[in-house]
Structures are given as structure tokens and as C-alpha cells.
Write a structure and sequence with these properties.
Layout lengths: L2 E8 L4 H5 L12 H13 L7 E4 L3 H10 L5 E3 L16 H4 L3 H6 L14 H22 L3 E6 L1 H11 E2 L14 E7 H7 L2 E7 L8 H9 L2
Parallel strand pairs: 1-4, 2-3, 2-4, 5-7
Antiparallel strand pairs: 1-6, 6-7
Helix pairs in contact: 2-3, 6-7
GO molecular function, one term: phosphatase activity
Protein name: Alpha-ribazole phosphatase
InterPro entries: His_Pase_superF_clade-1, His_PPase_superfam, PGM_Phosphatase
Amino acid sequence: MKGYRIAFIRHGITEANEDGRYIGTTDLPLSSAGAQELFDKLEKLDYPNPQKVYISPLKRCKQTAGIIYPNCYTVELPELREMDFGKFENKKAEELMDTPEYKQYIKGGLDNPPPGGESAREMVNRCYEAIKIIISDMMYEGLTSAAVVTHGGIIMNMLSCFGVPKRRPMDYACDFGEGFEVLVTASMWQRSEAFEVLGRYPDRDPDENYGSFYDEEEGE
């Protein structure tokens, strides 16, 4: 059975990440420390070159892809951009916590967007469109490996919605410059629009396997 391997990777650190600010559509570059961290990881970790790299159009993702995959063909997908936080963009939670808008927002829910921003449902629908485009493109071109350089929130929602076994979004939280690898088969995707999560990416420990990732939740 033919399979398609896709590595989902979170972009490197920006100054706003370092400051704890909300940055969704705010188009900030990597910080100098963020870029250096990626170069350091390249020295220690194995990032196999994929046949194609799909990236969010925001600077932090384009720069991350340029560092990790400098010689790979890249394609920008607007659907891979981070959530739009509206009025909360570029602000810290501590600046917002006493406002009624923020108190309402942190109650959660799929249809509870920040003022002037995007709802979780809208973001999930966007994730669905993105993964459909990527898988269809890989199948059409006959690709067997790809990387997706995007945002932490996008990775958590994509994998929790379409990955199996099913896990919570926060179980797919990942460090900057790291993420998860999945395996897509045509039969599984066409039957249930789902893919298999293989484990963390890049592999830090050669002894780490598929099962060890899922055993983490059992020990909680």
C-alpha cells in the first residue's frame, strides 16, 4: 500500500513569542535567537529533505523553511497561516485579562472569536482545506514525502482533527522548529479523511518509536 509521509513543523521563535504576545496574522520575522536556535538544531537533529515543502505565507515560516530546507522546492499556501486574533494581535494576555472581550474569549468554544478575529471553527475549516490541497497535490505529482512549515495552533488543530488515534489538540503542542510526522494512505484518506500520526519530528532518540508517543498520555 502506497503511503505519503508528511512532517508538520512549527516555525522558529520571534520576538513576540519571546515576549508572550499574541501573533496570528501579525507578520513578524524570526528573532536572531530564533534563527540561531534553528541552526543549532540542524547540527544536532536529522531533518531529511522532503520532495516538497508547503509553507504558511508569513515571514517566520518562510524563514524557518529557508533555514531547515534551503535546497527544497517550496509552495506557499494561504490556508496554512496562523489564526487571526483580531484586536488581541501583538498584545500580551496580562494586558487583556481585565477586559470583557478577553474574559468572553477565554471561555473557549468553536464559535467564540476574538473581536475582529477568526473563530476556532473558521480555523479548523481552513486546516481542512489546507490538508486536502496538500494530499491531493502529493497524489497528483506522485510525491511520497513532504514537509509543512506552519504555526503551532495549525499543527495542533490539523493533527487532533484528522490524526489517528484521536488525541486532544494540546497533546500535539511542539517546540519551535519541531513537530510531528504523519503517514497518509489513499485508502484511509478517501474512506475517513484521516491519517496516521507516526510520532515526533525530527526524531531525537533512535529508540523512540510510534508506540512511545502514545504511551505518554497513559502515564499522565
